[in-house]
Design goal:
The complex is a heterodimer. By secondary structure, chain A is mainly beta. In chain A, a hairpin with a 7-residue loop joins strand 9 and strand 10. Chain A has no helices and 11 strands. In chain A, the strands form 2 sheets. In chain A, strands 2, 4, 5, 6, 9, 10 and 11 form a 7-stranded mixed beta sheet that branches. The termini of chain A are far apart. In chain A, 0% of the residues lie in helices and 58% in strands. By secondary structure, chain B is an all-beta fold. Helix content of chain B is 0%, strand content 56%. The N and C termini of chain B lie far apart (41 Å). The model of chain B has no long low-confidence stretch (mean pLDDT 92). Chains A and B meet through strand 5, strand 9 and strand 10 of A and strand 4 and strand 5 of B.
Chain lengths: 112, 114
């Protein structure tokens, strides 16, 4: 998975609790992305980062925040998890040219 | 705005048969086009990409795709399916230019039968 580690790989949590997912890369790529994957929707972009402390919203950003204090780490936070946020979350990284993105193995999150 | 349409959420072929997975895109500017494959409980792996140059692109595992601008299509083919090809396949589009966002189709699950 191209030097990308997502943690945790699986998480079960309760509605209303905060959750943080971590994406760690060893490739020193500038661009990092968070997606969620749901049946019938493919992958949808939540947030992305184009450098340390530089982030922007994707198409499904409501209820999510991100932070990137170091090149190698991109954190996704659900401030107050809801059942609609039950999903598989993927991190991706890109060096930039040609927009090729490389994906992590995913985090399966269940919000009960 | 960009969009991707993958016709057929499920495709079933016999082992040894031709694989054809359809992808049509919408983009206001010349696009970059990608096919990714996802095996169960794994992340997405790049199969092939079109950025510039030759419109017929070859990827890993014997797959290829042809960019047809006039048809706004980027269909994925493989002459002879193998059991190991069973997976979900995603077509994606981005605008040209560094780090433009990818827009994914909803995916096609390929089943290969004996």
């Amino acid at each position: 998975d191209a030097g990308i580690t997502q943690s945790p790989r699986h998480k079960v949590t309760e509605t209303g609790t905060p959750v943080t997912l971590r994406c760690h890369q060893t490739e020193n790529h500038r661009y990092m992305y968070w997606y969620r994957q749901d049946p019938g929707h493919g992958l949808r972009l939540i947030h992305y980062s184009y450098g340390v402390k530089d982030t922007d919203k994707g198409e499904v950003s409501d209820g999510y925040s991100v932070s990137r204090s170091k090149t190698e780490d991109f954190l996704l936070t659900l401030e107050s998890a809801t059942s609609s946020q039950t999903s598989v979350y993927f991190c991706a990284i890109s060096p930039g040219p040609e927009n090729i993105q490389y994906f992590g193995a995913g985090t399966r999150l269940s919000v009960l | 705005a960009q969009s991707v349409t993958q016709l057929g959420s499920h495709v079933s072929v016999s082992e040894g048969a031709l694989v054809l997975l359809r992808c049509n895109y919408s983009s206001s500017v010349p696009p970059y086009l990608f096919w990714y494959v996802q095996y169960p409980n794994q992340g997405l792996q790049l199969l092939l990409k079109y950025t510039t140059g030759a419109t017929l692109v070859k990827g890993i595992n014997g797959f290829e795709a042809e960019f047809k601008k006039s048809e706004t299509s980027f269909h994925l083919t493989k002459p002879s399916a193998h059991m190991s090809d069973a997976a979900e396949y995603f077509c994606a589009v981005s605008e040209t230019g560094t780090a433009s966002k990818l827009t994914f189709g909803t995916g096609t699950r390929l089943q290969v039968t004996l």
